[in-house]
Amino acid sequence: MSDPQIEKLLIVQDRDVALQKIEQELARIPQERNALEANITAEQANIEAARQALKEKEVERSEIDTEVKAKESAIARFLTQQLEVKKNDEYRALTHQIEQSQQEIAELEEREIELMLEIDTTREAFEAEKAIIEARIQEQTKQIAQLGERENNLKASVDEAKANVEAARSAADENYLGHYDRVKTLCKRPPYVAQIEAHKCGGCHLRVSNEVSSGALLAGEPHFCDQCARIVYA
Ligand SMILES: [Zn+2]
Fold first, then answer.
1. Which of 51, 128, 167, 229 has the most crowded Cβ, counting Cβ within 10 A?
2. pLDDT digits (tens, 9 = 90+) for 175-223
């Protein structure tokens, strides 16, 4: 490299790239954090849904209990009434009602036994699943805390990286720096200052003209790739 100004620009570029990396990493942190938080919310919703399903079964069971008790007191009532009725058909009607209630109680109790088994299985599955999910939530919460730490570290590095860029810029030539800044707005990604090798620009990898190729060897003024407009040197 024959142009000392290019050397200075390369230092500016190195430090710019270092700063960009830190800034890009910083910019990704909110997304990473949102994704983790969304996961945790979804996991908690899953636990809550399972808890709710279990609760519904328990409510159903207690409703059955209430229903059984109501039918038992109805039977007691029918039995008392039977002591008081005089006519045979009234007596038989009450017997029929008693038998019907007993039948209904038997059915309810059968359902209750099924339900108790279901509740046991569901509760076991729920407790096991809940432990796994809670461990995941804990892990994700830890990751969020680590992200916070990384964010703080990166923020501290940004200031240092900016100061480094400024120091390199103040050492560079203003004319070169102006072109460098212009190229930076034109090109989406570094390098902004590219080396020509085997007649190819190190930025766009296209062949440059002979004029650019030989010009790039000369110091004193910046030269540009005729394909991508990057500053080139040889
Ligand atoms: Zn180029």
1. 229
2. 999 999 999 999 988 999 999 999 999 999 999 999 999 999 989 999 9
Q: What is the pLDDT of residue 1?
A: 59
User: What spacing in Å lies between the alpha carbon of 152 and ligand 1's midpoint?
Assistant: 37
Instruction: Cite the residue boundaries of each domain of the chain with CATH code 1.10.287.
Output: 20-170
Class of domain 20-170: mainly alpha
* CA distances in angstroms from 82 to 30, 98, 211, listed in the order given: 77, 10, 120
> How far is the centre of ligand 1, averaged over its atoms, from the C-alpha of 175 (Å)?
20
Q: How far is the CA of 204 from the centre of ligand 1 (A)?
A: 4
Give the pLDDT confidence of 74-115 residue by residue, as tens digits: 999 999 999 999 999 999 999 999 999 999 999 999 999 999
Query: Ligand 1 center to residue 55 CA distance, Å?
Result: 68
CA 132 to chain centre: 18
- Output the CA 162–ligand 1 centroid distance in Å: 27
Strands of the sheet with 193-197, listed across from one edge: 200-201, 193-197, 231-233, 223-224
